[in-house]
Amino acid sequence: MQALVLGFFVAQRPRLCEFNKLQSVCKQQSVLNCHPERFFLARRMLRLALCKLFAHATNEAMIFSTCREAAPVEERGFSPALGCTRAGLQPRRFLGLRSPATSASSAVKSLFESPNALMNPLLVHIATIQVGLPQRRDPDDDPWFTGIFKSKIDGPLHMNKRNLDGDAQADLRVHGGPNKAVMAYSAEHYPAWRSELEIADFPFGAFGENLTVIGAKEDDICVGDIHQIGTATLQVSQPRSPCWKLARKWDMPDLPKRLVISGRSGWYYRVLNEGTVDSEQDIKLLERPLPDWTIRRICDVTYGIERQPGDLAAMNALDLLASQWKRL
Predict the structure, then answer these.
(1) Is residue 263 part of a domain?
(2) Where are the alpha helices (DSSP H) in the chain?
(3) How far is residue 213's CA from residue 150's CA, in Å, rounded to a whole number?
(4) Coil, strand or helix: which one is 160?
(5) 155 and 72 in one domain?
(6) What number is the average pLDDT over the span 133-162?
(7) Which residues lie below 8 Å from residue 302, measured CB to CB, with a gap of 6+?
(8) Domain range for residue 281?
(9) Residue 128 burial by Cβ neighbours in a 10 Å radius (0-12, 13-18, 19+)
(10) pLDDT for the residue 46
(11) Is 120 contained in some domain?
(12) What is the pLDDT, as a whole number, of residue 179?
């Protein structure tokens, strides 16, 4: 194995130099443009590009599986669009490396073009963590009480069965509780929202989420997924259903509706095992009991965006879907 690794670095030296140059450029551009998620996204892509180069150099499924330890091959639900089948791995086709001349730049480009990137510990991690306590807003005008305003926290936080330390909800009739202990939202939605809403200063945490996540969106997350973050174990319980407070926060009455229609809802976790979490930690997929029920599909079925006969009954029969969601 040591000889294999050494041979890889010798053989791939020219492409590794290109990789390092690309990494420097991505980091410099992200700093200059003052968008921290650009650096996170670039780093995510570059890490997988390096994995791709390693796998291509060996042309062995063993190396690729070393990079992806999330689940056995049969359980990962590989997409034919990505060139991989349940019968086994096809390293060169899946990795998009058609010849030894394929560069790190092309590998990174292919990642952006891939429509169904698979969730695994190499790719998915926390960008930022936000918490906040309920507060009274607009006391002299039309006062309201909310916990949607959250601030970024640096450093580890303890996560219990109902909240992260320093976080709480205002209206416990509709927010909070074991099935809504922690809310997550994809960082990859933010560029689109900034453009659509024409708000340049639209930071992570703008939707009131606790975890802003790099590398996974609603199409990648399934109800019932069990994730490990730091020393905590969480389970995806339901999509996020936005309320009027999101609209008032940004003075946009139609924002909750736009969130639903766009499919960029975010999702909630229940906490199975309490623990400590920190930003930039990997989110590891431990189990996926319901691979057919993504967060996106749950929303589509619930709101009638895309629904087949029998879908609603099948969704309501899911034991791992939070009961509050079934009452919508």
Answers:
(1) yes
(2) 2-11, 13-32, 36-58, 61-67, 91-95, 104-113, 190-197, 244-250, 255-262, 295-303, 311-316, 323-326
(3) 16
(4) coil
(5) no
(6) 90
(7) 239, 312, 315, 325, 328
(8) 125-326
(9) buried
(10) 60
(11) no
(12) 96
Residue 54 has pLDDT above 70, yes or no: no
Q: What is the pLDDT of residues 101-113, one digit of tens each?
A: 344 444 444 444 4
**Does residue 119 lie within any of the structural domains?**
no
Query: How are the residues of the chain apportioned to helix, strand and coil, as percentages rounded to the nearest 5?
Result: 40, 20, 40
Structural domain ending residue among the three candidates 87, 113, 139: 113
Element (H, E) at 186: strand 182-186
Both 100 and 131 in one domain: the answer is no
Provide mean pLDDT across the span 147-154: 93
Q: What is the pLDDT of residues 281-309, one digit of tens each?
A: 999 999 999 999 999 999 999 999 999 99
Asked if the model's pLDDT at residue 208 lies above 70, the reply is yes
3-class secondary structure, 235 = strand
**At residue 299, what are phi and psi to the nearest 5 degrees?**
-65, -45
Pair type for strands 144-146 and 151-152 = unpaired
| Residues 134-143: tens digit of each pLDDT | 898 887 788 8
Q: Is the pTM of this model over 0.90?
A: no
Same domain, 51 and 169: no
The alpha carbon of 128 is separated from its chain's Cα centroid by a whole number of angstroms, namely 12
Q: Identify the band that residue 155 occupies on the pLDDT scale cut at 50, 70 and 90.
A: confident
- Do residues 298 and 315 lie in contact, with contact meaning Cβ atoms separated by under 8 Å? yes
Residue 295 belongs to a domain: yes
Report the number of distinct structural domains present in the chain: 2
Same-domain check for residues 162 and 224: yes
- At residue 7, what is the residue type? G
**Same domain, residue pair 192 and 298:** yes
Domain harbouring 207, CATH code: 2.40.33.20
Indicate if 107 and 129 belong to the same structural domain. no
30: number of Cβ within 10 Å:
18
* Cα(10)–Cα(91) distance, integer angstroms: 21
